[in-house]
Amino acid sequence: MRRNTPLLTLLAGAALGVVLLIASTMATPGTQSQYAAAGTAASPGATSSPSPSASPSPAGPHSPLRADYTGPVTGGGATVAVSVRGGKAIGFVCTAPGAATWLRGAAAAGLLQLAGPGHARLTGSYLDHRATGRARANGTQYRFAIHRVHQAGLHAAIVSRTAAACQPPAAPVDNGGGGGDNNGGGHHHGGGGD
Amino acid sequence: MTAQPGAEAPLPSQSTGSGAAKLVIPCLVGALVALTLGVYGHVHHPTGIAVNLAGFSGPQSAKAWLATGAFIAAIIQVISALVMYGKIKVQAPPWIGSLHRWSGRIAFLLAVPVAVHCLYALGFQTFSTRVLIHSLLGCAFFGAFTVKMLVLPKKDMPGWLLPTLGGIAFTALTGVWFSSAYWFFSTFGIKR
Fold first, then answer.
1. Cα–chain-centroid distance for residue A73?
2. Which of these, A82, A156, A186, A158, lies nearest to A125 by C-alpha position?
3. Is B79 helix (H, G, I), strand (E, B) or coil?
4. In which residue ranges of chain A is pLDDT below 70?
5. Among all residues of chain B, which has the CA nearest to that of A106?
6. Packing angle, helices B129-151 and B161-177, rounded to 10
7. What is the pLDDT of residue A177?
């Protein structure tokens, strides 16, 4: 070949990738400060760090970058919880106190995908105030529509898989800032389980 | 490979040896590409979001559609290759080579933004078999594609080499698409 067009194709793709990577970095609000702040008391009212005005915002309803959700499954019989930190999510399905199926997975732009032992699965979507979807644990299918909570220690309890996590949920808090018992006291164990 | 004026074509053993040597660098580069993507995906903290594309119901569906576009372009590439190599018995039109090259470029360039978003927002994940396969094959696809692009301009390669490399890249992309876009559409529905 006179001109090495395959190499041009490769380089064009690589250049495109780099440009998109840079644009993504600019579009991510306060990533550095988020991970620096992990482990210290996160501001209870913030759904996500304020985004620079120049960055493109995700289409559709807003999904937070750090959020915890918990509540009963539709129809009762189990409790579900999901904790989102950036692109990672952890959670559980509890059928009885102390009988938890632990899940871990990914959360991206409003969609949840978690998995756990014994073909446990959780898929759904998460928004500013609630998360909905389906879960399967121990062969049983559940649907859930749970509220976002500001519950101190929930994330840490899921990370360390303590039985304390598998409790009836605290009273749901609709909007940030008015959180009942956890104002400023939330010691979030950042970083997510791995 | 010494070339004396007027000499016959090199003996098969010689051309095989030098041909294989020509493959080392492309394979190393391809492996490096695959490895770099995997390491980045693992080390980088997935953010959950990345730059978005308007017109879709969300970034995940945008990726699923782009990936499906890439997959369709790759299928066109395979079919055009089969025609070019005479495996499909039709009269090969003169534009078949262009179709093959352009469908390949489109597949690759559609795959790049999907991969960037995936690596940046989600990272190299292992929480289920599906995502593990996706993560591995995703890296492998770009490595295999790199090797193919670097080998293409080389002369004196055995005739089976390009189809094999193309087949590997296509197989990897098929696995990537099934473990992601197909899963997405079957789990969340075929939506915009």
1. 18
2. A82
3. helix
4. 1-2, 30-62, 167-194
5. B122
6. 150
7. 42
**Strand ranges, E, within B106-182:** none
Q: Rounded to an integer, what distance in angstroms lies between the CA atom of residue A104 and that of residue A39?
A: 20
**Angle formed at CA A48 by CA A40 and CA A64, multiple of 5 degrees:** 115
Q: Taking the model in full, what pTM does it have?
A: 0.71
The answer to whether A27 contacts B115, with C-beta atoms less than 8 Å apart, is: no
B108 or A78: which leads in pLDDT: B108
Residues 6+ apart with CB under 8 A from A147: A69, A70, A71, A129, A130, A172, A173, A174
* pLDDT greater than 70 at residue B146: yes
Residue with tokens 């080389």: B154
Task: Report CB contact under 8 Å: B54, A106.
Answer: no
Both tokens of A187, joined, read 């010691």
What b/e sequence results for B119-138 when a residue is b if at least 16 CB atoms lie within 10 Å of its CB, and e otherwise? bbbbbbbebbeebeebbbbb
Q: What are phi and psi of A146, to 5 degrees?
A: -115, 160
Residues of A in contact with B187 (CB under 8 A): 123
**Does residue A44 contact residue A184 with C-beta atoms inside 8 Å?**
yes
Pairing, β A79-85 against β A66-72: antiparallel
Cβ atoms of residues B117 and B51 within 8 Å? yes
- Phi, then psi, of B97 in degrees rounded to 5: -65, -40
What angle do helix axes B129-151 and B96-117 make, rounded to 10 degrees? Answer: 140
Structure tokens at A117: 């032992």
Handedness of CA B89, A9, A17, B24 (dihedral sign): positive
Residue type, B76: I
B33-82, pLDDT tens digit by residue?
A: 999 999 998 888 888 777 667 778 778 888 999 999 999 999 999 999 99
Angle at B115 between CA B113 and CA B117, to 5 degrees: 70
Nearest in space to A87 (alpha carbons), one of B89, B73, B7, B60: B60
Q: Give me the residue from B108, B116, B128 closest to A115, CB to CB.
A: B128
pLDDT at B179: 94
Choose from B33, B65, B128, B185 for mutation: most chain A CBs within 10 A.
B128
Amino acid at position B53, single letter: L
